[in-house]
Specification:
The protein has helices at residues 2-9, 12-30, 33-43, 48-66, 68-85, 90-103, 113-119, 126-151, 153-158, 174-188, 193-206, 208-211, 216-222, 225-244, 247-252, 257-271, 273-281, 288-297, 307-318, 325-349. By secondary structure, the chain is mainly alpha-helical.
Length: 350
């Protein structure tokens, strides 16, 4: 019972914070924020290459600010629409969105649920986390964009340039301010979960959806309660197992940076990065920041690595795109290897 209590105390806060971020992202999407940014990218000067780079930068920022899953859910359609608005290569935008979302989830504690799980009981502030991860984040994101761009260079350069027809109606409201508040809270507060959840609920209450008589069910659905509950149970289960055994401690307590990254990546691909984070977070880890490289960027090697990949497949299919899982692993493995190596070097030098 004591083990279960410890597991619960170290696990509830990350899920509460993610629920708040999902609510804020839901309201921001209803205000047209993501569509507006996509329209800006589509109207930017330059051809398809410039459009791709600008869109991927936006994906990276949304991931860092509003969480990996929020970015995948709301930015994948925006990226597809941006590509179609200029008649350019959709493949680069579709695969780029998921690869960049994973690679860019290193910056804030709230950028990825695995970050929160690994550091939930380590007493680190959001500002300290950012200071440690800002350079690896920049390195990982830049390398990922560069690899996808090199892969699809001919298709992007060979596309005919059409004037963008993408338009967006944006109404500044609680979603925008909620996102800004969430960033400040995650950086400045040691325990931002309840504050961010409160901001998310408030956004849903006073936002545009409320004026259209949004139901309680729609608000709850935005926070993905069933998905989060299932993931919470899985996380608590693996955390309890890890606390009752010494498997994770034996693996990582003396491992160096490359070994830590490799073990985290392999574990993510075999059992998914969320249970892996719960498993490894229960004991002392020699290099916890290196662990996040494997847990966050490693899932680019295969769709089994993270929930974000499964969400991405579902959303792509809704837009009549059937991404190849073989292509995902072939290109994603190169992306992950180069991005993790570059980011790991910055960690060691730091």
């Amino acid at each position: 019972m004591h083990v279960l209590t410890q597991a619960l105390s170290g696990t509830w806060s990350p899920f509460v914070l993610v629920a708040g971020l999902l609510l804020i992202g839901h309201v921001a999407a209803s205000e047209g924020l993501f569509q507006l940014v996509g329209a800006w990218c589509a109207r930017a000067p330059g051809g398809a290459v410039a459009l791709f780079i600008s869109t991927m930068i936006v994906v990276a920022v949304v991931t860092a600010v509003l969480n990996l899953d929020t970015s995948v859910v709301f930015m994948t359609p925006v990226a597809i629409q941006a590509a179609r608005s200029k008649g350019t290569d959709e493949t680069a935008f579709v695969f780029g969105t998921i690869f960049v979302s994973n690679s860019a989830s290193l910056l804030l504690l709230g950028s990825n649920l695995t970050n929160l799980l690994v550091f939930s009981n380590r007493g680190i502030s959001g500002a300290t986390f950012v200071l440690h991860m800002v350079v690896p984040w920049l390195a990982s994101t830049t390398v990922t964009i560069a690899v996808v761009l090199a892969w699809r260079w001919r298709a992007l350069r060979g596309a005919r340039h059409h004037p963008s027809s993408l338009r967006a109606r944006f109404e500044a409201g609680p979603g925008l301010f909620g996102a800004a508040f969430a960033v400040v809270a995650m950086v400045a507060l040691s325990r931002p979960a309840l504050w961010v959840l409160g901001a998310g609920v408030l956004c849903e209450v006073v936002g545009p959806l409320a004026r259209r008589r949004s139901t309680v069910f729609e608000t709850l659905k935005a926070a993905s309660p069933v998905t989060l509950l299932v993931l919470f149970v899985v996380a608590v289960g693996f955390s309890s197992i890890a606390r009752a055994t010494s498997v994770s401690a034996t693996l990582l307590v003396h491992a160096n940076v490359p070994a830590t990254v490799a073990i985290a990546t392999l574990s993510s691909l075999v059992i998914n990065n969320l249970p892996s984070a719960s498993l490894f977070a229960a004991h002392a880890i020699a290099h916890p920041f290196a662990l996040l490289l494997g847990l966050d960027v490693g899932p680019n090697c295969a769709v089994t690595g993270a929930l974000s990949s499964l969400l991405w497949i579902r959303i792509a299919r809704r837009h009549d795109i059937k991404p190849s899982l073989r292509t995902y692993s072939a290109i994603g493995s190169i992306v992950a290897a180069l991005a993790m190596t570059t980011a790991a070097c910055t960690l060691v030098l730091h």
